[in-house]
Write a structure and sequence with these properties.
By secondary structure, the chain is α+β, with helices and mostly antiparallel strands. It has one domain: Jelly Rolls, CATH 2.60.120. 19% of the residues lie in helices and 24% in strands. A seven-stranded antiparallel beta sheet has the order 1-11-8-15-6-3-2. Strands 7-12-9-10 form a four-stranded antiparallel beta sheet. Strand 2 and strand 3 form a beta hairpin. The longest helix has 15 residues. The protein is globular and about 65 Å long. About 7% of the residues have low confidence. The chain binds 2-oxoglutaric acid and fe (ii) ion. The site of fe (ii) ion (FE2) has 5 residues, from loops. Pfam families: 2OG-FeII_Oxy_2. It comes from Jaminaea rosea. Keywords: Dioxygenase, Iron, Metal-binding, Nucleus, Oxidoreductase.
């Protein structure tokens, strides 16, 4: 038996759909009432890479030559986050983003064959290349995060995120256009924007307000894959709070507890949620965040055939 999860058809992908309540979707959503298998949703696939593969990925990411790392600041000028681009540079030309392509490294194509495995899931079946052609690797030290943002129209509306080395909570937010009941108000200072400099990946959403509180969160275990497609990609913002630990109030928003692979983790999260529901303030169990790496794969549909592109093809 493979020590990683294989997903080969839309129907198989469908089994990993994260169940979110109907009323969480904005009424303006373009999602189908009965979405097709693998479309318009969040899909959480635990153990998408094996433990050996995870160790190797961490090593290759950490060993990347210094110039490969870009260092970015958040808005207050603190919390330096590091990231790497693979597959080429995305340049924005007006609304349209263009990829100046480069080949992916072996640790994404050979061992582990992440690109092939992700393409197989069928999440990118409708995109220009039926496969991701770009990857952003983010490093999050405990306490680092990314402000709520949307990934925007630069990409085919699908993103596949592999997490390694630590769990995190991805917080999912709605725009505050309709102020649904119970909304906590909204940012009116345009702060629904990314803290990190990947202008194409984390497109600032100026002038639009978002709800202050996350609608729900998705717990991503190390070695998992999270796929966000179609309306789920377009309708929500996502962010990672700058925390060193996730406590009961945060974990209570997690919608995929039942889908966690690690039984101890699942029991712990269940326990924290249950005791906080029962008003038990004595439970101080928390999930402590370690350094996490995320590999976010996307398809930039427009690819430059300029000199750099031609040279790369010949390699
Ligand atoms: O690290 C993650 O899981 C999310 C990163 C992200 O949202 C982005 O790079 O656009
Ligand atoms: Fe993002």
């Amino acid at each position: 038996m493979a020590s990683y999860t294989v997903v080969k058809t839309p129907e198989e992908l469908e089994k990993y759909r994260v169940r979110i309540p109907d009323d969480v979707w904005p009424s303006t959503s373009t999602r189908a009432s009965q979405p097709s298998p693998g479309q318009d949703g969040f899909f959480y696939i635990p153990a998408f890479v094996s433990e050996d593969e995870e160790r190797y990925l961490i090593q290759k990411i950490q060993d990347a030559p210094q110039p490969k790392w870009k260092t970015l600041q958040n808005r207050s000028g603190q919390s330096l986050c590091r990231l790497q681009y693979w597959g080429g540079q995305v340049s924005s030309r007006g609304e349209r983003s263009v990829l100046i392509p480069e080949s992916f490294p072996d640790f994404m194509t050979k061992f582990p064959p992440l690109i092939e495995r992700i393409a197989q899931t069928s999440a990118f079946a409708g995109s220009a290349h039926a496969s991701p052609n770009h990857c952003l690797v983010n490093e999050y030290l405990p306490g680092q995060g990314i402000l709520p943002h949307e990934d925007g129209a630069a990409y085919w509306p699908a993103v596949a995120t592999v997490s390694v080395a630590s769990h995190t909570l991805l917080d999912i937010y709605r725009w505050a256009t309709e102020k649904p009941e119970g909304a906590e108000g909204a940012d009116d200072d345009g702060s629904a924007q990314a803290s990190q400099g990947d202008a194409a990946a984390a497109r600032p959403a100026r002038g639009k307000a978002r709800e202050q509180e996350a609608a729900f969160s998705i717990l991503q275990e190390p070695r998992s894959l999270l796929i966000t497609t179609g309306a789920a990609y377009r309708d929500f913002l996502h962010g990672i709070a700058e925390r060193t630990r996730d406590e009961a109030a945060h974990l209570a928003k997690v919608v995929n507890v039942a889908d966690l692979r690690d039984v101890d983790l699942r029991a712990k999260v269940d326990g924290v949620i249950a005791s906080s529901r029962d008003g038990d303030e004595t439970s101080h169990d928390v999930l402590v965040r370690e350094t996490r790496y995320s590999l976010t794969f996307r398809d930039v549909e427009k690819v430059s055939k300029g000199l750099a592109g031609l040279l790369n093809k010949k390699r």
